[in-house]
Structure formats: C-alpha cells, structure tokens
Please model this.
Amino acid sequence: MTPRIRFLRTGLALTVVAGTVLLTGCTAIVPLEPAADAVNPTCADLIVRLPTSVAELPERETNAQATGAWGTPSAVLLHCGVTVPAPTTLPCLTVNGIDWIEDDSDAPLYRYTTYGRDPATELIIDSDKVSGSTVLVDLAQAVGNIPATGQCVGAEDLLLPTDGETLPPAP
Model:
C-alpha cells in the first residue's frame, strides 16, 4: 500500500470516528427508572407504537424498560406501568378517547396519568418547553393500545339524592 493511500484511509477512518462521536455526543441516553409494573406485556404494546416525534420534539433513547423521552433536553418523559390511580379530586381530561388525571403541583412540570387503564401510563411534561395538550394528542394513539377498564366521572355523573330523597343502601 502506498503512503498516500494509507494516509487517505487513515484520514477517512478518523473522519468517520470523529463524526460518530459528534453525533452520539448530541443524543445522550436519557437516564430513567422503570415503573413498578414496567414488565407488563401491555406496556410493550405501547412502547413499540410510540411516535418518533411528539409536539415536533425528536424521540430520545432511554435506559429503562417501558419508558420514552422526547426533546433535547428532554421536555416529555413517559413511564408505562405506574400505579393505577384511585379516584381523585384532581382534574380529569379526556383527549382523543384517553382519560388523563392532571397534577400541576410541580408546575411548570405537569404530571398526567391515565385513568381507567391497567397498567397506567404517566407523562411528565415541561410546560415551559412544550404544550401539554399537543403531547396528549400525539401520544393518544399509542396509549390507546392499553385497553380502557373505566373512565373519569364528575360530580354531575353521580346519583345524588334530591328534594329529601334517600338513596338505597349500597349492596
């Protein structure tokens, strides 16, 4: 091999290595903890259907089972297999057929948890970087792969006595 060819091969190899380092350096793996029920096979049905972008943010690789992340830095985090929520007084939103409990106690980070689906899915959304409603719309199709077992109800859905009536005792 001539010195010129050896030089060209070495230069090409260094360029490929440097390019790979630069590209992978920009998209580091997002470190997350798996949820308690992340091994649930239904979570796998959700994860394989996650979109490659959410609210125009690119998908990121994560290091934990049944998780997802979008944005650089991450503005949307997903965990499948979180504890199924009990009835709550927190607001419940229905977006494209998916019921979500909204917790804004850590605003501008909003926590949305599916209601009436087992296993439950949780989203953490940085509202300073992305619109929560856009994220919920973009993820509805994937989350819809977890069958609904119930739905949110409001006070107007409850049977309450009126005009002195009494309700029969619960069975």
